[in-house]
Amino acid sequence: MDLPTLILWFGLALVGVGVAGGGVLAMGELRVRALRKARFQDPAGPAVEASRGEVRILGQVTASVRRLGQQAAVRDPSKVSDVRMRLVRAGFFGREAAIYYLGARAAALAAATLGTIVLLPFALKPGHGMAPVLLAAILALIALLGPDQALAMRQKDREREYADGFPDLLDLLVASVEAGLSLDAAVGRVTDELARRYPRLTIHLRMLTLELRAGKSRKEAWTAFADRLGIDDARAFATMLRQAEDMGTSLGETLSVFSQDMRQKRMLRAEEKALALPVKLTVPLILFIFPCLLGVLLLPAAFRLTQVFN
Asked: pTM of the predicted model, to two decimals?
């Protein structure tokens, strides 16, 4: 290939990278706008009825997954409680969510095994190369790591929202308690205030309110609340409430000190992210911006040189 063709292909590659990056940014912006719009919309929308055949097929698939999950739970009952807690932290509060998760993981393993068996004759035939083996390995990795990774990503996303909303929760609790409300009444008031800004955190606050109204002790309710959130700030807050109740200290002063400490921690986390930003930008600068800059600067000169030498 001559130099003009190489320059053309290099330019097309840069254009493709730019278009792909712009598409990724546009999709991210549309996703953020959709999330913002969904927070202010009425959750009760018009229900769409499915056809009987689709409902029947979906019911059969669900029943099969449920049976697989029950068999997996019977074989290893010790994992059910751990899986249930992970699902609660990821936002799945159903009683049988752990059964369906174990069933989905078993179904993924069965599908990967079936795909490997189907690809085995193609791998043994000469001329196909390593493509069937690589495809089988990819299917196996997806089946083994896919459900756990999807659950971990969903849990991490929710924990990020919990960590962002917990300082605001503490500030509103301090304001409510200092205004004369009890801690239980303050939790109900704060739940109504945070419903639009942090809807996922509000679900756990409503569960905490229901547990307190049902007669559960404050120590156990706040400890269970911290376990469901899965963040260190919530665990420290539950420990602080337990120690304040045992020692008989003032709840308003304790909440004020803890809220101030949380604000300082949030500021330190923000400063840490700001200081780490130049280091994180080094790799994108080298991989994307620097080659584009070189292309913009050198392609005209290379094109003129080719014209001169031709």
From this structure: 0.64
